[in-house]
Amino acid sequence: MYLTSNTGSTNSLTPNIPQHNITTGLYSRRKTKQKKKKKKKEMNFTWFFLLSIATILVSVINGQTPVKPVVKIVKGKKLCDKGWECKGFSAYCCNETISDFFQTYQFENLFSKRNAPVAHASGFWDYRSFITAAAEYQPHGFGTTGGKTSGMKEVAAFLGHVGSKTSCGYGVATGGPFAWGLCYNKELSPDKYYCDDYYKLTYPCSPGAAYYGRGAIPIYWNYNYGKTGEALKVDLLNHPEYIEQNATLAFQAAIWKWMTPPEKHIPSAHDVFVGNWKPTKNDTLSKRVPGFGATINVLYGDQVCGQGSDNESMNNIISHYLYYLDLMGVGREEAGPNEVLSCAEQAAFKPSGAPSSSTT
């Protein structure tokens, strides 16, 4: 039997339930709805809080959170410290640091195929390893010399060498030949141990150790592993395999090589690129000028330079540099004229022949 509702309407009927039960049911439903709304609000707040924390963490990792420098004046000169990335009060740390203009997504763009199934070092290289290694050298001007554009150009130049030396790309490769940098972290089929007994007193070869090419800018020979290990305070002479086991160490070794003069009378690749090096009269006669071409000369000498414009190795390095400039948003037009970009006509800083710090 149905009763008319208490609204007085004869068309609105309710089941034959005692009135107090109807009231209790309505209250219970309202209370349930309120609980659901409260719970939903709490969940929304929790998610918002977690997303905020995640966003902050991602921003820090990606270098998107600017660090306010600690500044002091020493003898009228402004020096800055920016924490983990540019530490130790340096004038260079007052400039933009690398993570200000080069972040994870850009690294991924430059080396988009490095983790492809066919890549030989898949899962090894990453942005964190690079930026951690770079932090050691930013107080000394790596990527921090001059303004933002200068810093971006140096990072592109350094990585241009890295990409060309670790690439497994070829003309018709998926993504193009320049998308395959950091495909390798070591030489796959070395045909010798690269042990030079000339250095048996200073850098003696460790029994069973092989000093074939490893790293971002490959290291060869016992004496190069020895010198690099001394600089990085890592026993690479007895354990050259460390380079292929640790991506941060591999990047550190490459940046150290970029920043360090190979010999007393030869400038570093960093110095010839950023303009710290001033050519002598003999340099001018040898057609050596500051710029990217001179970095090729410092690192590879007459194995690449002074052989005309058709040298494949030189052109491959240059092409990677130009490609990276474009991807980083700088543009290849910033690379300068051909005599600055190339070392085709440059005489080597040190002709090959005698044992030296050559990478090959």
Automatic annotation (TrEMBL):
Keywords noted in UniProt: Chitin-binding, Disulfide bond, Membrane, Plant defense, Transmembrane, Transmembrane helix
Annotated disulfide bonds: C195-C205, C305-C343
Single Gene Ontology BP annotation: chitin catabolic process
UniProt superkingdom: Eukaryota
InterPro entries according to UniProt: Glyco_hydro_19, Glyco_hydro_19_cat, Lysozyme-like_dom_sf
Pfam families, sorted: Glyco_hydro_19 (PF00182)
UniProt GO molecular function: chitin binding; chitinase activity
Glycoside hydrolase family 19 catalytic domain span: 106-333
UniProt protein name: Glycoside hydrolase family 19 catalytic domain-containing protein
Lineage, top ranks: Eukaryota, Viridiplantae, Streptophyta, Embryophyta, Tracheophyta
